[in-house]
Specification:
Elements (H helix, E strand, L loop, with lengths): L1 H29 L5 H7 L7 H29 L1 H19 L5 H18 L1 H11 L4 H9 L1 H11 L2 H8 L1 H8 L1 H13 L7 H6 L16 H4 L3 H21 L2 H7 L4 H25 L5 H20 L6 H27 L4 H29 L2 H19 L13
Helix pairs in contact: 1-4, 1-5, 1-6, 1-7, 1-8, 1-11, 3-4, 3-5, 3-19, 4-5, 4-6, 4-10, 4-11, 5-6, 6-7, 7-16, 7-18, 8-16, 9-10, 14-18, 14-19, 14-20, 15-16, 16-18, 17-18, 17-20, 19-20
């Protein structure tokens, strides 16, 4: 009976990591766009100055770029549990303070806190947590937990959140949402464990060393960042992260400006979150059987095709192209993290993930704000054509990843 419990304990960590990412990533990044039109009205921002609102997202992502490496060092030294607990408490505080803001500049300050919460309790520490518990089925386990980065947004778009905001105000909604990370912090404190501590736990989801890096093994940080694979992953990550946030964090404003109702814009966001969840799970599962490098390149191509729904097609075409783009993004997000863990191991995972995340955060910061500036100067179509060009570049770069695989890895 005890042995059976030990064997399912790794999967309990998967469920807990999924819950953590769903709440933390959802509230730190995914659902803030739902509040866009309400913040515009509150702080009196017109359609010629959307960059003032989108600086909120840029500041958040620039802050994430600043803090993410430090978060990686903290994870390597303290273990993921303590770092996740810290980030969850910060998230609770940030949402409460958000509800009290009286100017757009105070909103900027709160988004610095959201960035800290994201890098300390979002995907990176949970990826490292789960990777320490799994060798066999690692792709499946990571695919499951990384659906959380979209699951929070999907739940929000399909929940009564929008109706609640319209009836009770966005400030009340923020205060209500602040309760979620508080409850999560208690669960993390009581249940989460950093890594297996008994032989049964270690053997339950472990495969022989020749099939991949074991927990605590892998490349040193200095060696990893000098590899061509690391550089290519950074370049691809910048292109796809810039692109996805440029599209998604402008979707509500883009759709409503085109004359469609807010509810339809939120529905399209829900479509994005749903199909990105499907993409994360399906492509991660396939990557346990087919080269993850090929899956990554395929997903870049899907993102490029989907981006045409923003850059050259009419708004109505989002019905067809939004799912394609979301599937590609979901696959890239999961497989990109899987490639990092499989090729570089867990020895310096915090610092390696943190460094790549700096590049990703630069893309996350520039995507929304540059698209908003291009909108203010020209139109949304101009900003979205830049997105499609970057995704085309990512398609080309991704075809070179497999040629630069780390020789001892087995993608």
């Amino acid at each position: 009976m005890v042995n059976n419990w030990k064997k399912i304990l790794p999967w309990i960590m998967v469920v807990l990591a999924l819950l953590t990412i769903t709440i933390n990533s959802g509230m730190s990044a995914s659902i803030t766009s739902i509040f866009d039109t309400f913040l515009k009205d509150t702080f009196q921002i017109d359609n010629k100055h959307l960059h003032l609102l989108k600086w909120r997202d840029a500041i958040s992502d620039l802050s994430a770029a600043i803090f993410v490496f430090l978060a990686g060092v903290m994870i390597d030294r303290l273990g993921p549990k303590r770092v996740i607990l810290f980030g969850t408490v910060v998230l609770c505080l940030a949402y409460f303070l958000y509800s009290k803001t009286t100017s757009i500049y105070q909103v900027y300050g709160v988004h610095i806190l959201l960035a800290i919460a994201l890098v300390t309790s979002g995907s990176i520490p949970n990826i490292i947590l789960v990777s320490s518990w799994f060798q066999r089925n690692r792709g499946l386990a990571l695919g499951i937990i990384l659906t959380g980065t979209s699951l929070g947004g999907f739940i929000a778009t399909k929940s009564p959140l929008l109706a609640y905001i319209e009836s009770n105000g966005w400030r009340s909604a923020m205060q209500l949402l602040a309760v979620l990370p508080l409850v999560l912090a208690i669960i993390v404190l009581l249940v989460m464990r950093n890594k297996p501590t008994t032989n049964v736990e270690k053997e339950a989801n472990t495969i022989p060393a020749k099939q991949g890096s074991q927990p605590g093994e892998g490349m040193e940080f200095g060696a990893a960042i000098r590899t061509p694979l690391f550089i290519l992953l950074c370049l691809c990550s910048f292109c796809v992260f810039y692109s996805i946030v440029a599209m998604i964090k402008n979707t509500v404003l883009y759709v409503t400006e085109a004359g469609y109702p807010l509810a339809m814009a939120v529905n399209w966001l829900g479509t994005y979150f749903l199909f990105s969840i499907i993409g994360k799970f399906i492509f991660s599962f396939i990557a346990d059987y087919i080269s993850a490098f090929y899956m990554y390149a395929l997903c870049c191509a899907l993102m490029f095709i989907g981006s045409l729904g923003f850059s050259v097609a009419s708004v109505a075409q989002l019905d067809y192209l939004m799912p394609v783009m979301a599937m590609g993004w979901g696959g890239i997000y999961s497989i990109g993290n899987l490639l990092i863990m499989r090729n570089f191991g867990t020895r310096a995972a915090g610092k390696i993930n943190g460094t790549i995340s700096i590049v990703q955060s630069a893309g996350l910061a520039l995507g929304p704000i540059m698209t908003a500036y291009l909108h203010d100067a020209f139109s949304y179509a101009t900003g979205f054509k830049v997105v499609s060009a970057l995704l085309l570049l990512a398609c080309v770069l991704s075809t070179r990843l497999v040629r630069n695989a780390i020789p001892t890895s087995h993608p």
